[in-house]
Amino acid sequence: MTAYFTLQWEDDHVVMLDQRLLPGEVRYIPIFSVEEMAEAIRNMTVRGAPAIGAAAAYGMALAALTADRKHEKVYEQAAAAQTLLFAARPTAVNLGWALRRMRRRLDSAAGGLNNAEMAQTLLAEAHAIAEEDRATNRRMAENALALLPDEVTFIHHCNTGTLATVEYGTALGVIRAAHEHGKKVLVYVDETRPRLQGARLTAWELTQLGIPYQIIVDGAAAAVMRTRHVDACVVGCDRVAANGDTANKIGTYNLSIVAKAHQVPFYVVGPTSTVDLETPTGAEIVIEERAPEEITEIEGRRIAPEGAQVFNPAFDVTLAANITAIITEEGVCRAPFIDSLRAAVQRARDVD
Ligand code: MRU
Question: Quick check: is 238 catalytic?
Fold first, then answer.
């Protein structure tokens, strides 16, 4: 357990760490309504694919509980919440996955339960999603351990730790597990322009965990691989297509090309809930584009000329051919991913 948490339920609302303020300030904010939750996902108060899945689930529960309190129709309000939350961020599949799961629960409750019971059922389902995320992360980390030497140097992109999940983390969970199992770990932390999830969030988490690291600018990865020893690149994922093409934070694709050129294993770590078998290849993944100011300004100070044109995709797609393995809670998937991913998803469904 860490001394900080991403989000948790308290009495009648969600308490969430405002990740926009880290590392300077550790401030938790209350979220009382679905509108506040949708805005928190949109403005990246909470971010990271599994974390926004859990946040959205709680958002739908909040809508149902609020409707019950106001004597409004719980089913209709929860269904409207699903639409509102789904529009908050498009790329991470966990958002839609969690909302569809909540909707199935709502639909099955609608026949026999009254409004208050329906709302409580949704809250229980949101708790279950959050709880499963904790367990899933630890299973992924355990599955990765056998792939790592006793002295292991990583390059890690973006933030994939507790902050990006409900607890423990995906790719950062693998790093944590290596450290906890007594391996000698060093992490090169990609700063991850433009939102600096690496320099701000991953470095903050590694400091709390006592894991040695050095921050590098994103463009330094090739030089680091060439001039220093790197055992593995580990990254998270926002959506994995059926063929293994993987959407993740912008810059991941660059890193995968550089890793391939230097024969460094490139591991994607993510739960089966991030695998989207309905999307055949990366070409069909919708990539979120964010505001130009994320690039033209740093902490509100303009660094580019007035009127500069900007292209700001928040994610890119790493081709399956560049990925050594995709590590899920259901095991380590290797090429051909079309078969190994399908089998992992099936095993996860069998457990449900
Ligand atoms: O824009 P963000 O910060 O939500 O992007 C996060 C990432 O790209 C992570 O690598 C991904 O969500 C996996 S996190 C476990």
Answer: yes
